Protein backbone atom coordinates (compact mmCIF):
# COMPACT_ATOMS: atom_id res chain seq x y z
CA UNK A 1 0.00 0.00 0.00
CA UNK A 2 1.13 3.52 -0.69
CA UNK A 3 1.44 4.48 2.93
CA UNK A 4 3.80 1.62 3.62
CA UNK A 5 6.65 3.10 1.63
CA UNK A 6 6.12 6.35 3.48
CA UNK A 7 5.89 4.59 6.75
CA UNK A 8 8.97 2.48 6.29
CA UNK A 9 10.76 4.63 3.73
CA UNK A 10 14.34 3.56 3.64
CA UNK A 11 17.57 4.49 1.93
CA UNK A 12 20.24 2.14 0.76
CA UNK A 13 21.35 1.58 4.28
CA UNK A 14 18.06 2.12 5.86
CA UNK A 15 16.10 2.21 9.02
CA UNK A 16 12.77 1.11 10.19
CA UNK A 17 10.84 4.30 10.03
CA UNK A 18 7.71 3.11 11.66
CA UNK A 19 8.73 4.28 15.08
CA UNK A 20 10.54 7.33 13.80
CA UNK A 21 7.24 8.47 12.41
CA UNK A 22 5.51 7.99 15.71
CA UNK A 23 3.28 5.13 14.77
CA UNK A 24 4.37 2.91 17.59
CA UNK A 25 4.33 3.45 21.28
CA UNK A 26 7.33 3.27 23.51
CA UNK A 27 7.13 -0.39 24.40
CA UNK A 28 7.72 -1.41 20.84
CA UNK A 29 11.19 0.02 21.04
CA UNK A 30 12.15 -1.85 24.10
CA UNK A 31 13.60 -5.26 24.27
CA UNK A 32 11.54 -7.77 22.46
CA UNK A 33 10.56 -9.96 25.36
CA UNK A 34 8.81 -7.01 27.05
CA UNK A 35 7.25 -5.76 23.88
CA UNK A 36 3.52 -5.93 23.44
CA UNK A 37 3.73 -5.94 19.64
CA UNK A 38 7.01 -7.65 18.86
CA UNK A 39 8.27 -10.80 20.51
CA UNK A 40 11.76 -12.17 20.30
CA UNK A 41 12.23 -14.75 17.57
CA UNK A 42 12.89 -18.24 18.85
CA UNK A 43 15.88 -20.22 17.68
CA UNK A 44 16.18 -21.10 14.89
CA UNK A 45 14.50 -18.23 13.11
CA UNK A 46 12.41 -19.86 10.41
CA UNK A 47 12.22 -18.26 7.00
CA UNK A 48 11.65 -18.79 3.32
CA UNK A 49 12.60 -16.82 0.27
CA UNK A 50 10.11 -15.48 -2.23
CA UNK A 51 10.60 -17.51 -5.46
CA UNK A 52 10.73 -14.11 -7.18
CA UNK A 53 14.36 -13.71 -6.07
CA UNK A 54 16.98 -14.50 -8.69
CA UNK A 55 19.64 -17.09 -7.98
CA UNK A 56 22.21 -14.32 -7.47
CA UNK A 57 19.90 -12.64 -4.98
CA UNK A 58 19.28 -15.93 -3.19
CA UNK A 59 23.02 -16.41 -2.82
CA UNK A 60 23.38 -12.87 -1.50
CA UNK A 61 20.65 -13.37 1.10
CA UNK A 62 22.16 -16.68 2.18
CA UNK A 63 25.51 -14.98 2.49
CA UNK A 64 23.96 -12.32 4.74
CA UNK A 65 22.43 -15.07 6.88
CA UNK A 66 25.76 -16.90 7.07
CA UNK A 67 27.56 -13.72 8.02
CA UNK A 68 25.11 -12.78 10.79
CA UNK A 69 25.21 -16.33 12.12
CA UNK A 70 29.02 -16.31 12.07
CA UNK A 71 29.13 -12.91 13.80
CA UNK A 72 27.00 -14.39 16.57
CA UNK A 73 29.08 -17.57 16.90
CA UNK A 74 26.08 -19.58 15.71
CA UNK A 75 24.12 -18.66 18.81
CA UNK A 76 21.28 -17.60 16.55
CA UNK A 77 20.59 -19.62 13.44
CA UNK A 78 18.15 -19.20 10.59
CA UNK A 79 16.44 -22.27 9.23
CA UNK A 80 14.69 -22.40 5.84
CA UNK A 81 11.26 -23.99 5.76
CA UNK A 82 8.78 -24.43 2.90
CA UNK A 83 6.40 -21.56 2.26
CA UNK A 84 3.61 -23.97 3.14
CA UNK A 85 5.04 -24.71 6.59
CA UNK A 86 2.73 -23.95 9.48
CA UNK A 87 5.72 -22.74 11.51
CA UNK A 88 5.69 -18.99 12.00
CA UNK A 89 8.40 -17.61 9.76
CA UNK A 90 9.87 -14.69 7.87
CA UNK A 91 9.09 -14.33 4.20
CA UNK A 92 11.89 -12.41 2.54
CA UNK A 93 10.44 -10.74 -0.50
CA UNK A 94 11.27 -8.06 -3.08
CA UNK A 95 7.57 -7.65 -3.89
CA UNK A 96 4.61 -5.91 -2.33
CA UNK A 97 2.40 -8.97 -2.67
CA UNK A 98 2.12 -12.24 -4.52
CA UNK A 99 3.70 -13.26 -7.83
CA UNK A 100 3.63 -10.42 -10.35
CA UNK A 101 2.84 -7.75 -7.77
CA UNK A 102 4.68 -4.40 -7.86
CA UNK A 103 8.19 -4.29 -6.41
CA UNK A 104 8.97 -2.95 -2.98
CA UNK A 105 10.70 0.46 -3.08
CA UNK A 106 12.40 0.25 0.26
CA UNK A 107 13.77 -2.39 2.57
CA UNK A 108 12.22 -2.82 5.97
CA UNK A 109 11.93 -5.19 8.87
CA UNK A 110 10.29 -4.99 12.26
CA UNK A 111 12.29 -5.70 15.41
CA UNK A 112 11.03 -9.15 16.27
CA UNK A 113 8.00 -11.34 15.80
CA UNK A 114 4.90 -9.34 14.90
CA UNK A 115 2.60 -10.87 17.49
CA UNK A 116 -0.53 -9.88 15.60
CA UNK A 117 0.79 -11.58 12.49
CA UNK A 118 1.63 -14.70 14.46
CA UNK A 119 -1.83 -14.81 15.95
CA UNK A 120 -3.51 -14.56 12.59
CA UNK A 121 -1.14 -16.23 10.16
CA UNK A 122 2.07 -18.12 9.61
CA UNK A 123 4.46 -15.47 8.31
CA UNK A 124 5.58 -11.88 8.35
CA UNK A 125 7.53 -10.19 5.62
CA UNK A 126 10.94 -8.60 5.50
CA UNK A 127 11.17 -6.39 2.44
CA UNK A 128 14.40 -6.68 0.49
CA UNK A 129 13.83 -4.22 -2.32
CA UNK A 130 15.79 -3.99 -5.54
CA UNK A 131 17.04 -0.80 -7.09
CA UNK A 132 18.74 2.37 -5.89
CA UNK A 133 16.65 2.73 -2.72
CA UNK A 134 16.76 -0.98 -1.96
CA UNK A 135 19.29 -3.23 -0.25
CA UNK A 136 20.03 -5.99 -2.75
CA UNK A 137 23.30 -4.34 -3.77
CA UNK A 138 25.31 -6.53 -1.41
CA UNK A 139 24.87 -9.01 1.38
CA UNK A 140 26.25 -6.37 3.74
CA UNK A 141 23.18 -4.19 3.18
CA UNK A 142 20.86 -7.13 3.78
CA UNK A 143 22.54 -7.93 7.10
CA UNK A 144 21.09 -4.76 8.59
CA UNK A 145 17.58 -6.13 8.28
CA UNK A 146 18.56 -9.41 9.88
CA UNK A 147 20.03 -7.47 12.80
CA UNK A 148 16.78 -5.50 13.12
CA UNK A 149 14.79 -8.75 13.08
CA UNK A 150 16.93 -9.86 16.02
CA UNK A 151 16.05 -6.70 17.95
CA UNK A 152 18.83 -4.20 17.26
CA UNK A 153 17.62 -0.61 16.97
CA UNK A 154 18.91 2.08 14.66
CA UNK A 155 22.05 3.62 16.10
CA UNK A 156 21.54 7.04 14.51
CA UNK A 157 18.19 7.45 16.28
CA UNK A 158 19.66 7.10 19.76
CA UNK A 159 18.57 9.90 22.03
CA UNK A 160 22.17 11.00 22.57
CA UNK A 161 23.15 10.91 18.92
CA UNK A 162 23.42 14.72 18.66
CA UNK A 163 26.76 14.47 20.44
CA UNK A 164 27.98 12.17 17.68
CA UNK A 165 26.33 13.23 14.45
CA UNK A 166 24.88 16.57 13.37
CA UNK A 167 21.60 15.88 11.62
CA UNK A 168 19.86 18.16 9.13
CA UNK A 169 16.51 19.62 10.03
CA UNK A 170 13.55 17.68 8.68
CA UNK A 171 13.09 20.29 5.96
CA UNK A 172 16.52 19.42 4.58
CA UNK A 173 15.93 15.67 4.54
CA UNK A 174 14.47 13.72 1.67
CA UNK A 175 12.23 11.91 4.14
CA UNK A 176 11.22 14.12 7.06
CA UNK A 177 11.16 12.17 10.31
CA UNK A 178 13.71 9.66 9.11
CA UNK A 179 16.14 10.73 11.81
CA UNK A 180 13.74 11.36 14.66
CA UNK A 181 15.43 10.46 17.92
CA UNK A 182 14.18 7.76 20.20
CA UNK A 183 13.13 9.13 23.56
CA UNK A 184 14.37 7.68 26.81
CA UNK A 185 11.14 5.75 27.15
CA UNK A 186 11.37 4.43 23.61
CA UNK A 187 14.84 2.97 23.53
CA UNK A 188 17.76 2.56 25.81
CA UNK A 189 21.20 3.39 24.57
CA UNK A 190 23.55 4.26 27.38
CA UNK A 191 24.81 0.78 28.05
CA UNK A 192 27.09 0.93 25.03
CA UNK A 193 29.01 3.90 23.65
CA UNK A 194 27.80 5.43 20.42
CA UNK A 195 28.75 3.09 17.63
CA UNK A 196 29.58 4.51 14.22
CA UNK A 197 30.23 0.92 13.16
CA UNK A 198 26.80 -0.45 13.98
CA UNK A 199 25.37 -2.26 11.01
CA UNK A 200 22.21 -0.26 11.66
CA UNK A 201 23.94 3.11 11.25
CA UNK A 202 22.78 5.08 8.23
CA UNK A 203 25.19 6.56 5.74
CA UNK A 204 25.04 10.36 5.28
CA UNK A 205 23.42 9.82 1.90
CA UNK A 206 20.48 7.89 3.36
CA UNK A 207 17.27 9.95 3.27
CA UNK A 208 19.37 12.86 2.08
CA UNK A 209 18.36 15.46 -0.44
CA UNK A 210 20.71 15.63 -3.38
CA UNK A 211 23.86 17.46 -2.35
CA UNK A 212 22.86 17.83 1.29
CA UNK A 213 24.22 15.05 3.51
CA UNK A 214 21.57 13.95 5.99
CA UNK A 215 24.16 14.28 8.74
CA UNK A 216 27.78 15.15 9.32
CA UNK A 217 30.24 13.91 11.91
CA UNK A 218 31.76 16.58 14.16
CA UNK A 219 35.49 17.12 13.79
CA UNK A 220 37.60 14.94 16.01
CA UNK A 221 35.16 12.05 16.31
CA UNK A 222 36.86 8.89 15.13
CA UNK A 223 36.84 7.25 12.72
CA UNK A 224 35.34 10.33 11.09
CA UNK A 225 33.09 8.43 8.71
CA UNK A 226 30.53 5.63 8.89
CA UNK A 227 32.35 2.39 8.14
CA UNK A 228 30.14 -0.06 6.34
CA UNK A 229 31.43 -3.28 7.86
CA UNK A 230 30.06 -6.48 6.45
CA UNK A 231 29.76 -7.89 9.92
CA UNK A 232 28.03 -7.01 13.13
CA UNK A 233 30.00 -4.44 15.06
CA UNK A 234 31.29 -5.50 18.43
CA UNK A 235 28.46 -3.76 20.23
CA UNK A 236 25.80 -4.97 17.77
CA UNK A 237 26.99 -8.47 18.51
CA UNK A 238 27.19 -7.93 22.27
CA UNK A 239 23.73 -6.41 22.41
CA UNK A 240 22.08 -9.15 20.38
CA UNK A 241 24.01 -11.78 22.33
CA UNK A 242 22.79 -10.37 25.63
CA UNK A 243 19.24 -10.22 24.38
CA UNK A 244 19.41 -13.85 23.34
CA UNK A 245 21.22 -15.32 26.30
CA UNK A 246 24.36 -15.87 24.24
CA UNK A 247 27.92 -15.21 25.32
CA UNK A 248 28.84 -11.61 24.43
CA UNK A 249 32.52 -12.28 25.11
CA UNK A 250 32.59 -14.41 21.96
CA UNK A 251 31.94 -11.29 19.87
CA UNK A 252 34.78 -10.23 17.60
CA UNK A 253 36.72 -7.26 18.90
CA UNK A 254 36.60 -4.72 16.11
CA UNK A 255 38.04 -1.34 16.92
CA UNK A 256 35.70 1.13 15.28
CA UNK A 257 37.78 4.24 15.95
CA UNK A 258 40.73 2.83 14.05
CA UNK A 259 38.77 1.99 10.90
CA UNK A 260 39.84 3.75 7.76
CA UNK A 261 38.00 3.66 4.44
CA UNK A 262 40.73 1.28 3.26
CA UNK A 263 40.57 -1.11 6.20
CA UNK A 264 36.80 -1.20 6.02
CA UNK A 265 37.06 -2.23 2.42
CA UNK A 266 39.70 -4.80 3.35
CA UNK A 267 37.49 -6.25 6.06
CA UNK A 268 34.62 -6.41 3.62
CA UNK A 269 36.78 -8.20 1.11
CA UNK A 270 38.14 -10.64 3.67
CA UNK A 271 34.69 -11.52 4.88
CA UNK A 272 33.39 -11.81 1.37
CA UNK A 273 36.16 -14.24 0.62
CA UNK A 274 35.52 -16.18 3.79
CA UNK A 275 31.87 -16.46 3.04
CA UNK A 276 31.77 -17.23 -0.62
CA UNK A 277 30.12 -20.55 -0.01
CA UNK A 278 26.41 -19.83 -0.06
CA UNK A 279 24.20 -21.52 2.49
CA UNK A 280 22.28 -24.38 1.05
CA UNK A 281 18.58 -24.05 1.35
CA UNK A 282 18.35 -27.35 3.15
CA UNK A 283 20.50 -26.50 6.15
CA UNK A 284 18.68 -27.46 9.31
CA UNK A 285 19.02 -25.92 12.74
CA UNK A 286 22.40 -26.32 14.32
CA UNK A 287 22.75 -29.13 16.80
CA UNK A 288 25.75 -27.58 18.51
CA UNK A 289 24.71 -25.45 21.44
CA UNK A 290 26.68 -22.32 22.20
CA UNK A 291 28.50 -22.65 25.51
CA UNK A 292 26.77 -21.18 28.54
CA UNK A 293 28.26 -18.24 30.32
CA UNK A 294 29.61 -19.07 33.74
CA UNK A 295 26.84 -16.83 34.90
CA UNK A 296 23.93 -15.29 33.12
CA UNK A 297 23.83 -12.18 35.23
CA UNK A 298 24.37 -9.82 32.37
CA UNK A 299 21.82 -11.33 30.06
CA UNK A 300 18.08 -11.02 29.89
CA UNK A 301 16.28 -13.59 31.96
CA UNK A 302 13.49 -15.15 29.98
CA UNK A 303 11.91 -16.65 33.04
CA UNK A 304 12.64 -17.80 36.56
CA UNK A 305 10.98 -20.43 38.64
CA UNK A 306 11.18 -22.53 41.71
CA UNK A 307 11.67 -26.18 40.83
CA UNK A 308 9.78 -28.82 42.76
CA UNK A 309 12.96 -29.67 44.67
CA UNK A 310 13.17 -26.08 45.88
CA UNK A 311 15.95 -24.88 43.60
CA UNK A 312 15.42 -21.42 42.11
CA UNK A 313 16.41 -21.37 38.45
CA UNK A 314 16.78 -18.42 36.14
CA UNK A 315 16.54 -19.12 32.40
CA UNK A 316 18.12 -17.13 29.60
CA UNK A 317 18.36 -18.35 26.05
CA UNK A 318 19.51 -21.94 26.04
CA UNK A 319 20.89 -21.79 29.56
CA UNK A 320 19.78 -22.00 33.16
CA UNK A 321 21.42 -20.85 36.34
CA UNK A 322 20.58 -21.59 39.93
CA UNK A 323 20.10 -18.78 42.41
CA UNK A 324 20.49 -19.10 46.13
CA UNK A 325 16.96 -18.62 47.42
CA UNK A 326 18.08 -16.72 50.49
CA UNK A 327 20.82 -14.47 49.18
CA UNK A 328 19.50 -14.33 45.61
CA UNK A 329 23.06 -14.73 44.40
CA UNK A 330 24.05 -17.11 41.67
CA UNK A 331 24.96 -20.60 42.70
CA UNK A 332 27.33 -22.53 40.45
CA UNK A 333 27.79 -22.17 36.73
CA UNK A 334 25.05 -21.84 34.17
CA UNK A 335 24.08 -25.08 32.46
CA UNK A 336 22.21 -25.98 29.31
CA UNK A 337 18.46 -26.18 29.80
CA UNK A 338 18.58 -29.45 27.84
CA UNK A 339 20.86 -30.85 30.56
CA UNK A 340 18.51 -29.77 33.32
CA UNK A 341 15.30 -31.29 31.95
CA UNK A 342 14.76 -34.51 30.07
CA UNK A 343 12.24 -35.02 27.28
CA UNK A 344 13.79 -32.64 24.78
CA UNK A 345 13.15 -29.39 26.64
CA UNK A 346 15.37 -26.70 25.22
CA UNK A 347 15.45 -22.93 25.47
CA UNK A 348 14.53 -20.23 25.07
CA UNK A 349 11.73 -20.64 27.56
CA UNK A 350 8.78 -18.34 27.95
CA UNK A 351 7.08 -19.56 31.11
CA UNK A 352 7.78 -22.14 33.78
CA UNK A 353 5.47 -22.72 36.69
CA UNK A 354 4.71 -25.29 39.32
CA UNK A 355 1.29 -26.93 39.20
CA UNK A 356 1.54 -29.36 42.08
CA UNK A 357 4.00 -30.36 44.74
CA UNK A 358 5.78 -32.57 42.20
CA UNK A 359 4.72 -31.14 38.88
CA UNK A 360 6.12 -28.37 36.73
CA UNK A 361 4.84 -26.86 33.49
CA UNK A 362 7.18 -25.44 30.86
CA UNK A 363 6.19 -23.33 27.87
CA UNK A 364 8.95 -22.66 25.36
CA UNK A 365 9.14 -19.51 23.27
CA UNK A 366 8.50 -21.74 20.27
CA UNK A 367 5.14 -22.60 21.85
CA UNK A 368 5.75 -26.18 22.97
CA UNK A 369 4.39 -27.01 26.40
CA UNK A 370 5.79 -29.72 28.65
CA UNK A 371 4.54 -31.31 31.81
CA UNK A 372 7.33 -32.43 34.12
CA UNK A 373 7.52 -34.63 37.15
CA UNK A 374 10.54 -33.24 38.85
CA UNK A 375 12.81 -32.62 35.88
CA UNK A 376 11.46 -35.49 33.75
CA UNK A 377 9.30 -33.92 31.07
CA UNK A 378 7.04 -34.82 28.19
CA UNK A 379 5.09 -32.67 25.77
CA UNK A 380 1.43 -31.96 26.26
CA UNK A 381 -1.23 -29.83 24.58
CA UNK A 382 -0.35 -26.22 25.25
CA UNK A 383 -2.71 -24.42 27.60
CA UNK A 384 -0.98 -21.06 27.16
CA UNK A 385 0.24 -19.13 24.16
CA UNK A 386 3.87 -18.05 24.34
CA UNK A 387 3.17 -14.71 22.69
CA UNK A 388 0.52 -13.88 25.28
CA UNK A 389 2.62 -14.31 28.38
CA UNK A 390 5.82 -12.91 29.79
CA UNK A 391 5.96 -15.08 32.86
CA UNK A 392 3.81 -17.44 34.86
CA UNK A 393 4.30 -17.86 38.55
CA UNK A 394 2.57 -19.59 41.38
CA UNK A 395 2.09 -18.76 44.98
CA UNK A 396 1.40 -21.10 47.86
CA UNK A 397 -0.65 -20.50 50.92
CA UNK A 398 1.85 -21.63 53.48
CA UNK A 399 5.26 -20.13 52.86
CA UNK A 400 8.12 -21.27 54.97
CA UNK A 401 6.50 -24.60 55.72
CA UNK A 402 5.03 -27.31 53.53
CA UNK A 403 3.22 -25.53 50.77
CA UNK A 404 -0.45 -26.20 50.47
CA UNK A 405 -1.56 -27.16 46.99
CA UNK A 406 -3.14 -26.37 44.73
CA UNK A 407 -1.31 -23.12 44.47
CA UNK A 408 -2.76 -20.07 42.85
CA UNK A 409 -1.20 -19.45 39.46
CA UNK A 410 -0.72 -16.00 37.99
CA UNK A 411 0.14 -15.04 34.45
CA UNK A 412 2.00 -11.87 33.54
CA UNK A 413 0.69 -10.77 30.18
CA UNK A 414 2.76 -10.09 27.08
CA UNK A 415 3.20 -6.45 28.01
CA UNK A 416 5.12 -7.69 31.01
CA UNK A 417 3.35 -5.30 33.32
CA UNK A 418 -0.10 -6.68 34.03
CA UNK A 419 -0.95 -9.94 35.63
CA UNK A 420 -3.96 -12.11 35.99
CA UNK A 421 -5.12 -14.77 38.37
CA UNK A 422 -5.42 -17.83 36.15
CA UNK A 423 -8.80 -18.59 37.64
CA UNK A 424 -9.93 -15.22 36.28
CA UNK A 425 -7.85 -14.49 33.19
CA UNK A 426 -10.00 -11.47 32.29
CA UNK A 427 -9.65 -9.10 35.21
CA UNK A 428 -6.16 -7.63 35.53
CA UNK A 429 -4.97 -7.92 39.08
CA UNK A 430 -2.15 -5.56 38.98
CA UNK A 431 -0.24 -3.13 36.82
CA UNK A 432 3.37 -2.64 37.76
CA UNK A 433 3.18 1.11 37.27
CA UNK A 434 1.25 1.17 40.50
CA UNK A 435 4.34 -0.04 42.29
CA UNK A 436 5.82 3.31 41.43
CA UNK A 437 9.25 4.02 42.70
CA UNK A 438 9.68 0.71 44.43
CA UNK A 439 10.96 -0.84 41.19
CA UNK A 440 12.24 2.23 39.42
CA UNK A 441 14.51 0.48 37.00
CA UNK A 442 12.03 -2.06 35.77
CA UNK A 443 10.48 -1.34 32.43
CA UNK A 444 8.85 -4.71 32.60
CA UNK A 445 8.98 -8.00 34.31
CA UNK A 446 10.51 -10.81 32.39
CA UNK A 447 10.56 -13.31 35.14
CA UNK A 448 8.69 -13.75 38.37
CA UNK A 449 9.20 -16.55 40.80
CA UNK A 450 8.04 -17.69 44.15
CA UNK A 451 10.26 -18.08 47.12
CA UNK A 452 9.27 -18.73 50.68
CA UNK A 453 12.65 -18.32 52.23
CA UNK A 454 13.12 -14.57 51.90
CA UNK A 455 14.21 -12.65 54.92
CA UNK A 456 10.99 -11.03 56.03
CA UNK A 457 12.43 -8.98 58.87
CA UNK A 458 11.42 -5.35 58.55
CA UNK A 459 8.02 -6.12 57.20
CA UNK A 460 5.15 -4.61 59.11
CA UNK A 461 3.26 -7.88 59.10
CA UNK A 462 4.43 -11.29 57.97
CA UNK A 463 3.50 -11.92 54.38
CA UNK A 464 1.17 -14.79 53.74
CA UNK A 465 2.86 -15.54 50.46
CA UNK A 466 5.97 -14.27 48.83
CA UNK A 467 7.07 -13.82 45.31
CA UNK A 468 10.17 -12.34 43.83
CA UNK A 469 10.40 -10.29 40.70
CA UNK A 470 13.30 -10.48 38.34
CA UNK A 471 13.33 -8.02 35.55
CA UNK A 472 15.59 -6.24 33.23
CA UNK A 473 16.12 -2.59 32.81
CA UNK A 474 15.91 -0.99 29.42
CA UNK A 475 19.53 -1.78 28.70
CA UNK A 476 19.04 -5.43 29.26
CA UNK A 477 20.60 -5.52 32.69
CA UNK A 478 19.00 -7.87 35.10
CA UNK A 479 17.51 -6.13 38.06
CA UNK A 480 16.29 -8.06 41.01
CA UNK A 481 13.70 -6.76 43.39
CA UNK A 482 13.80 -9.27 46.17
CA UNK A 483 11.66 -7.36 48.61
CA UNK A 484 8.59 -7.17 46.46
CA UNK A 485 6.21 -9.66 47.88
CA UNK A 486 2.57 -10.24 47.84
CA UNK A 487 0.07 -10.84 50.51
CA UNK A 488 -2.79 -13.03 49.53
CA UNK A 489 -5.60 -12.33 49.04
CA UNK A 490 -4.97 -9.60 46.58
CA UNK A 491 -5.20 -6.73 45.83
CA UNK A 492 -1.74 -5.47 45.72
CA UNK A 493 1.68 -6.09 46.97
CA UNK A 494 2.80 -5.55 50.46
CA UNK A 495 5.98 -3.63 50.97
CA UNK A 496 8.61 -3.49 53.61
CA UNK A 497 8.20 -0.54 55.92
CA UNK A 498 11.35 1.07 54.55
CA UNK A 499 11.92 1.58 50.85
CA UNK A 500 14.29 -0.98 49.44
CA UNK A 501 16.14 -0.12 46.26
CA UNK A 502 16.04 -2.54 43.40
CA UNK A 503 19.11 -4.70 43.37
CA UNK A 504 21.38 -4.75 40.42
CA UNK A 505 23.32 -7.58 38.89
CA UNK A 506 26.35 -6.87 41.01
CA UNK A 507 24.37 -7.80 44.06
CA UNK A 508 23.48 -11.23 42.85
CA UNK A 509 26.41 -12.19 40.73
C1 LIG B 1 1.74 -6.95 12.11
O1 LIG B 1 0.93 -7.89 11.49
C2 LIG B 1 -0.39 -7.44 11.22
C3 LIG B 1 -1.18 -8.63 10.71
O2 LIG B 1 -0.53 -9.21 9.63
C4 LIG B 1 -0.33 -6.31 10.24
O3 LIG B 1 -1.62 -5.82 9.97
C5 LIG B 1 0.52 -5.20 10.82
O4 LIG B 1 0.68 -4.17 9.87
C6 LIG B 1 1.88 -5.74 11.21
N1 LIG B 1 2.61 -4.70 11.92
C7 LIG B 1 3.73 -4.19 11.44
C8 LIG B 1 4.32 -3.10 12.24
O5 LIG B 1 4.26 -4.60 10.42
C1 LIG C 1 39.62 -4.83 21.96
O1 LIG C 1 40.56 -4.11 21.23
C2 LIG C 1 40.89 -2.88 21.83
C3 LIG C 1 41.79 -2.11 20.87
O2 LIG C 1 42.51 -2.96 20.05
C4 LIG C 1 41.55 -3.14 23.17
O3 LIG C 1 41.85 -1.92 23.80
C5 LIG C 1 40.58 -3.91 24.03
O4 LIG C 1 41.18 -4.25 25.25
C6 LIG C 1 40.12 -5.18 23.34
N1 LIG C 1 39.06 -5.79 24.14
C7 LIG C 1 38.98 -7.10 24.30
C8 LIG C 1 37.81 -7.56 25.09
O5 LIG C 1 39.77 -7.88 23.84
TrEMBL record:
InterPro entries in the record: MetalloPept_cat_dom_sf, Peptidase_M12A, Peptidase_Metallo
The lineage's top-level taxon is: Eukaryota
Please state the span of the N-terminal signal peptide per the UniProt entry. Answer: 1-24
Looking up SMART domains in the UniProt record yields: ZnMc
MF terms from GO for this chain are: metalloendopeptidase activity; zinc ion binding
Under the heading Pfam families, the entry gives: Astacin
- GO BP terms: proteolysis
Entry keyword set:
Signal
- Entry keyword annotation includes Cell membrane: no
Q: Which residues form the Peptidase metallopeptidase domain?
A: 37-198
User: PANTHER family, from UniProt?
Assistant: DISCOIDIN, CUB, EGF, LAMININ , AND ZINC METALLOPROTEASE DOMAIN CONTAINING (PTHR10127), METALLOENDOPEPTIDASE (PTHR10127:SF850)
Q: Under which name does UniProt file this protein?
A: Peptidase metallopeptidase domain-containing protein
Q: Which gene encodes it?
A: RvY_11873-1
Amino acid sequence: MASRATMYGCGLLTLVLMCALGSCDDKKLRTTNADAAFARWGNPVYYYLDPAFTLAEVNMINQAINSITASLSSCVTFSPVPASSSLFKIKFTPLTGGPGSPPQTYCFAVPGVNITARQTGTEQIVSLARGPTGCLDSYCSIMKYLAICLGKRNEHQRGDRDSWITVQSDANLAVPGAYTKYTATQAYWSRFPYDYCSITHNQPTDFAKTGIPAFTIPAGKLPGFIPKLCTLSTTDCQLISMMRGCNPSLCANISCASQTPTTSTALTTALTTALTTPATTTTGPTTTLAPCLTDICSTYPDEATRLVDGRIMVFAGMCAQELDPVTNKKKGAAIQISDLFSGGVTGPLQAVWQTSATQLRILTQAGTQYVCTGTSCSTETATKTASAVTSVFETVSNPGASPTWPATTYTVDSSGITYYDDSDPVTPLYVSGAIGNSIPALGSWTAVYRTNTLDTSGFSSPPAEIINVIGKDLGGVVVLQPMVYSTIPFPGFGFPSAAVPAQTTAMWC
